[in-house]
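Ticket #4471: structure output looks truncated?

Reporter: J.K.
Steps to reproduce: submitted the chain below (125 residues) through the standard prediction queue, then opened the result file.
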Amino acid sequence: MDRSFLSQPAVIEASRQFVCVRLTTYEDELEAKFLKSLVRTGSGQVENSSFAILDADGKTKLAGGGRGMDQVYRDAKDMADGMARLLKKYSPKGEPASLPLVPTVRLALPVAASDGQPLVVVRVK
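Returned output as attached by the reporter:
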């Protein structure tokens, strides 16, 4: 993660208006295929970091398609300003409906561990 961009107050504030997604590309073949369609890498394979901003349809690139924010924006201020410009085209329809979900506990454990995030497992009868 590029802390020079993502830890800046202006980017943090701008990101609150977006849904941020962490794909499980190394663990999920379909997500890896999707990411390859968004980001071209030198190897042609999924790399350890990728960045893109997508439309609400989850397919149309609005900004990006690179290994990091610095391939799309000059600096954190440019990123925050760019995100603000993108937001002017949209009006929110509500709040996100759920927390990030992973299909299996076996997959959720390494994803949460590598992201340094807490994990909640819910068993439904």
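Triage note (M.O.): checked the attachment and the full token line is present. The first strand starts at residue 51 and ends at 54.
Status: closed, working as intended.
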